Model the fold of this input.
Amino acid sequence: MTVGTTTGTSATGTTTGSAGAPSTIAQADQPRAGRHLLSIADLGAEGIDEVMKLTDSFVEVSSRSIPKVPALRGKTVVSLFFEDSTRTRLSFETAARRLSADVMTFSSSSSSLKKGESLRDTVQTIEAMGIDAVVVRHGGSGVPWQVSRWVHGPSVINAGDGWHEHPTQALLDCYTIRQQQRARGIKSVPTLQGLRIAIVGDVRHSRVARSDVIAFAALGAHVTLVAPPTLLPASLVGWPVDVSHDLESVLPKLDVVYLLRLQKERMIEALLPSLREYTATYGLTRQRADLLPEGALIMHPGPVNRGVEIAAEVADLPASVITNQVANGVAVRMAVLYLLLGSGVDLAAA
Done:
């Protein structure tokens, strides 16, 4: 399987704008030839399955007393983050180090960007130092695609761009669901086929929701978006989803409820009367959690705003797999880095 290999055109030829409607990428905006992970759609169902299988190996590596393999020894991975991040940045850096890669951490607040240097010059300066991969997070949708056009050798991994996508979050979410099916004896062969998943909350501003919808649907899940109209994208044309504004009517039918935080930092207008009213209608309280079928999972990409989208006690229920998602993020990102940069080391013998 080739992860996001491009030769002038993307694997899908489409992307999703901030409003949520698919749009064709212009030829001039295509990434340069190289191996990248820019969108979860680059993988498709078979590619996602391959990442899931490889992640199993890295979960085992992470459980060792010394969780490290020499698979990427001699490779250099740059963490290029222009937004605040805890989980994603540390997860990628931990993943790279567990594969024995060297890690360079970029801080925009102390970089030459403060002196007027352009993003392009910054990227090409870092590339000139001799690197193998760039992990990019930026508040502007499409920036990882732009970076992939500016570099000639390194792989580019999208760690979240604006409202657009967050492909590795979707991968770790898929893996967590399959892992929990196996651990809880729900399915002998873990699969998302036929699962009923609701994504609840601020879908409009969520790159996680966009990537998750693509991944869940590709693997055969039935996805429902649950949110007030003001927190849904302006257009849902092309989205393989149902929509509901009534959380309590949806909960009894679910296998997974996936909660999103309110991204107040991205809201430029008043979209809700108040947080209290939002919580009263769309928050997962203990009473609402009791409506979930036995075995249903509660998920959240973090950071969690306890008492807003989820009650504090619900976040700590056995059905909640939020910390499992974080733990699996390291193994999933190890798999992605290995597929992009892998030296061919036999992991079983490492």
Observations:
- The longest strand covers residues 155-161.
- Residues 9 and 30 are 5 Å apart (CA to CA).
- The longest helix spans residues 322-341.
- DSSP finds eleven helices and 13 strands in the chain.
